[in-house]
Design brief:
two-stranded parallel sheet, 13 strands, globular, 360 residues, 15 helices, 45% helix, 15% strand, Rossmann fold, seven-stranded parallel beta sheet
Length: 360
């Protein structure tokens, strides 16, 4: 498959990224800056001194960083007007399932009203604008079905995080169908739904790979909840390449509005146990694994979840470049460089180069 991202498209484009200090937002900011885009970021302060944003020095790569709250519509409006973007990636969110149980109102406020704030400001802009709102694979009502979820499947979500993201999808669709188009707005809106994204520089709590890496770093036992649960694991570069291609196409034509899945090949989906064992096989000594049955009972997690990315493959010429094994190997190499500092930027640059030069 030919390379689908056109770097020249991004040169001198003004790009506004909410959540730019987060894991995916920081990777996206760094990647688009390397393409020559003028990146403006809007987010809270980075939470961890070892996370990607800090270690790679994203702050020095982008045009301007607004450290603000997505719920503050006035501050968001000021930042968007100052940036005058061509393309917006909305990634600011409360992204953690367990924290959603602990703070459901905050989760809904950030994920639902934060999205509404962004879209309400976007449709009032006078210049042509593309908005790509990032949600999650967990927007789908999980029926524990054996086939992957398509963009037309029912939305749902029982836990606060999943529910808030499904609500965000409804808001995105509403602004797209009943506010932007009928009023002749020059804004084109789409949403992107990706799977369990992995890569170096993510230290979020209650995510499998960061938890495993912390255990390795501290020499502690690796605790997992559901060893046989399968998830759509994919490297962050696979995910972001889909977002970038979609934004390019959306900038050119409104036929690309709507929802889009970006997931790994379904035959490449691994269960939690296999993922953890693959990682631990690359470390010596490696910690033991224990199953936290008590936490599993509390979490009420689904056993399976997978995405059908046929639409993205057919209409965007996008497909994942990395197998799960390759995605994990990239990720392990990136985390190793964090545990042994000074090499991180070189390793990340190698990951980007190798990824885009890979034949698929």
């Amino acid at each position: 498959m030919p390379r689908t991202i056109r770097e020249q498209f991004w040169r001198n484009k003004k790009v506004f990224i909410t959540g730019h200090t987060g894991f995916k937002g920081a990777w996206l900011s760094y990647l688009l800056s390397s393409f020559g885009a003028s990146v403006y970021g809007y987010s809270l302060e980075p939470e961890h001194e070892d996370q990607f944003y800090v270690k790679i020095g994203v702050d020095s790569c982008i045009k301007k960083s607004f450290i603000r709250d997505i719920r503050d519509k006035t501050a968001l409006e000021d930042a968007m007007k100052a940036s005058s973007p061509d393309i917006v990636f909305h990634m600011a969110a409360q992204p953690l399932v367990r924290f959603g149980y602990q703070a459901p109102l905050y989760t809904f406020d950030v994920n639902v009203m934060g999205t509404a704030n962004l879209l309400d400001l976007a449709v009032s802009m006078v210049k042509p604008l593309v908005v790509l709102a990032i949600t999650t694979d967990k927007v789908y009502k999980n029926h524990e079905q054996i086939w992957p979820y398509r963009e037309t499947d029912e939305l749902g979500g029982t836990d606060p995080y999943s529910s808030s993201k499904a609500c965000a999808e409804l808001i995105i669709n509403s602004y797209m169908e009943s506010i932007s188009r009928p009023n002749g707005s020059c804004v084109r809106i789409a949403s992107a739904r990706a799977g369990n994204v992995i890569g170096g520089g993510d230290w979020s709590l209650d995510r499998l790979i960061p938890d495993v890496m912390r255990s390795i770093q501290l020499g502690k036992t690796v605790s997992i909840r559901n060893p046989y649960a399968t998830r759509p694991w994919q490297h962050v570069l696979d995910c972001l390449s889909g977002y970038i291609v979609l934004a390019e196409r959306l900038y050119q034509s409104d036929e690309y509005t709507g929802a889009w899945n970006f997931g790994p090949l379904t035959e490449q989906e691994w269960n939690v146990e296999r993922v953890v064992e693959h990682i631990l096989n690359n470390f010596n000594p490696s910690p033991d694994i224990v199953v936290d049955t008590e936490m599993l009972a509390k979490k009420r997690e689904h056993m399976s979840l997978s995405l059908d990315s046929t639409k993205s493959t057919k209409y965007l010429n996008w497909s994942p470049r990395l197998s799960v094994s390759e995605a994990l190997d990239y990720t392990i190499r990136e985390y190793r460089s964090l545990l042994q500092p000074d090499d991180f930027k070189n390793v990340i640059d190698d990951s980007i180069k190798n990824f885009f030069n890979k034949d698929i």
